[in-house]
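User: Sequence recovery, please. Input:
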């Protein structure tokens, strides 16, 4: 089969690597106020606190290793004769460290810094501070290059084009609570794709999927990849 496969991933794929999800019991949004650490207004109110939050997440990510689900998607990308597009909502780099070559980070990346003054991007240091000057314009307006609530996700035109031309769409480890990603299944369905949800528990949009596979990502994702590569 030479068809295009588009895969949307969320925090659940990195859960078994030790990175917390957002909305599960013990999730990040049960410990932190989303308004304070994941909105432009929260950053304007208290940039030091927001930098501390993302510095801690960057450290967690550096100490984590990709799991069998990341590795299985890299294997699918390598061995599927058609195109495989991984679109992730995750700001970690575990897909890349698990061997995936082409990953679209729609919510940005912890390992990138962004100048809020001039838009310049550069590799983030392990610890970012409010006073860090932009290497391009020297403004002390450094922020993590992550998409906050109220901001527009990155690469939407490319993602829409991939969804309109895919034969298979899978959502892995995402709760279906955050749009536009939660609506991708509808776009893929309209494009005629087979849709499959792989998750620990049914997501909020589970009824939109043609197929479901429930369980930990480290188990269900390799099994799904096996079924695609050796039908
Ligand atoms: P959530 O925390 O909302 O959902 C995580 C999903 O992963 C849930 O459906 C869990 O059931 C599932 N899950 C947990 N452990 C799992 C495991 N071991 N294997 C498989 N699935 C598992 O995370 P996201 O859906 O990624 O955005 O959240 C979407 C966005 O909301 C994030 O990108 C972030 C957040 O606020 C921004 O910060 C802009």
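Assistant: Recovered sequence (231 residues):
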């Amino acid at each position: 089969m030479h068809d295009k496969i588009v895969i949307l991933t969320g925090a659940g794929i990195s859960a078994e690597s030790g990175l917390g999800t957002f909305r599960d019991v013990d999730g990040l949004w049960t410990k932190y106020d989303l308004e304070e650490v994941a909105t432009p207004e929260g950053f304007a109110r208290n940039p030091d606190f927001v930098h501390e939050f993302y510095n801690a997440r960057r450290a967690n990510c550096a100490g984590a290793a990709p799991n069998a689900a990341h590795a299985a998607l890299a294997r699918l990308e390598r061995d599927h004769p058609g195109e495989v597009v991984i679109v992730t909502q995750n700001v970690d780099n575990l897909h890349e460290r698990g061997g995936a070559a082409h990953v679209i980070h729609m919510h940005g990346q912890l390992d990138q810094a962004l100048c809020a003054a001039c838009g310049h991007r550069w590799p983030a240091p392990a610890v970012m501070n409010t006073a860090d000057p932009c290497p391009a314009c020297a403004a002390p307006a450094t922020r993590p290059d992550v998409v906050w609530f109220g901001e527009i996700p990155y690469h939407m035109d490319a993602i829409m084009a991939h969804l309109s031309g895919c034969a298979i769409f899978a959502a892995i480890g995402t709760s279906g609570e955050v749009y536009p990603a939660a609506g991708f299944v509808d776009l893929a369905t309209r494009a005629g794709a087979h849709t499959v949800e792989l998750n620990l528990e049914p997501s909020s949009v589970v009824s939109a999927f043609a197929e479901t596979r429930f369980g930990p990502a480290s188990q269900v994702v390799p099994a799904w990849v096996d079924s695609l590569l050796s039908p």
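The CA atoms of residues 107 and 152 lie 9 Å apart.
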